Amino acid sequence: MNKQNEVDISIIIPIYNEAANISSTLDEIIEVMEPLGRPYEIIAVDDGSKDNTFEILKGYHEKKPQVQVIRLTRNFGQHPALYAGFNYSKGKIVVTIDADGQNPPQEIPNLIKVLEEGNYDFVQGWRQHRQDSFYRKFFSNIVNWILTKITHVQLMDIGCGMACFSQNAVKKLLQATHHARYIPSEIAWMGLKVSSYPIIQRGRKKGKSRYRIWSLFWVNFDIIVSISTLPVE
Question: Which helix or strand (DSSP H or E) is residue 115 part of?
């Protein structure tokens, strides 16, 4: 491959019904990435949106070819959407970020710096001053505690969608025959080096989260079961 065409950083955005937010999120990411002077791509994964998210993404790609668009045939969920992005990523470093604008793109260079300087394979964002409801924070704290006990991996915020991966970590995730819902535990189980980094969480600008109380419960239960070695009756 011509070195001029090599991609240094891939940014993956799983997206579901975020027509109100995705343009501003992409604008912010590009504004942050351009001054870095490192070749990058943005992989926008439309996870079966029912609004006009896909049409917005197509229009964005026509103006900004570094924005690649993947459209899944239906809504599979955030985890499969991330893996779809991993499959298409070419970067030596892969960053994941939510589409709703709550993860500040300005933190991307910080995560990359921690990954590179600490020689980590994975750095997960740790949300500070969370703007979420009591229930979201409650479930997050409980599951954080349980997963730390199960995996012996001390990561502060499993629910944060903003993270940074080495190319080696992404390759190993794609080669694995079992995909745990809790990606950090999968990486740690492989013997790779992980860390957390504090980031500021913003409030959602527009729209509402699709996760309700019971859906949060079942998502978190599924995460625990997917990595536990204990039998479930």
Answer: helix 108-117
pLDDT band (50, 70, 90) for residue 229: very low
pTM: 0.81
CA–CA dist 148, 126 (Å, integer)? 15
Pick from 61, 59, 68, 51: nearest CA to 10:
68
Q: Quick one: angle between helices 134-151 and 213-227, nearest 10?
A: 10
The pairing of beta strand 67-71 with beta strand 40-46:
parallel
- Residue for token digits 């394979």? 121
Burial class of residue 136, CB neighbours in 10 A (0-12, 13-18, 19+): middle
With tokens 């892969």, the residue in question is 94
Select from 179, 170, 15 the least CA-distant residue to 95.
170
Residue in 103, 129, 126, 130 with CA at minimum distance from that of residue 26:
103
Give every CB contact of residue 192 below 8 A, 6+ residues apart in sequence. 121, 122, 166, 168, 169, 172
